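User: quick one, fold this
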Amino acid sequence: MLSTGEGIRSYFDRIPLKWNALYSADSRVSQVFNRLFRKAIFERFRLTFVHCGDISGASVLDIGSGTGQYAVHFALGGAQRVMGIDFSPSMIDFARGLAQQKGVSSRCELRCEDFATASFDEQFDIVIAVGFFDYIDQAGPVLKKIAGLTGRRFLASFPCSGPLWRFQRAVRYGWLKGCRIYEYTPRMLEALYEEAGFRYYHVIPVTRGLFVVAGNDDSPWSSQRRLSIK
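Assistant:
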């Protein structure tokens, strides 16, 4: 399910400090730069916590958890249990350190494992996969697996299709870093979410991508299975 597995793993193993700095830059200049030129990262973070619903006492699964920014934020916000899963050892090590630093390590279980082959014996109130599907060459089976793990709400991001962005991603990630990026359109996502069997899904355009709110709960959106903004 992963595009160039070892290339992606190697890339992310090298960048935990750099990746985390996108969220917590230590200088005002870096903060301004990131918010101007990496706007999508902050859009996705905001949308996740706007649309995840009440997290008090919730169980959360963060797929492709990276440096743990989302997992720790969920725990700090009142989630009872947060499981983060990422196949990069250095990312998981960093996330464990961050959870300990923020005093939430007792509520954050961080697993160094490939989601495609990982097994779970429970459902989660909230499941997120932000920045994860960029590197998945067959999203359908992954979404079906996630649908079976989602008790309430699932939030995910997807790179949007476009010739300029495609060329930039091909050079910056494919050629230079060995990480192919997979792109999506709203219609592609509608077909994938229909097949996965979510009770409802809602596609939201964001900078250079798409953000999808889906679930199996009694959300006001559940009366209309397909809700898309193109």
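User: anything notable?
Assistant: The longest strand covers residues 150-159.
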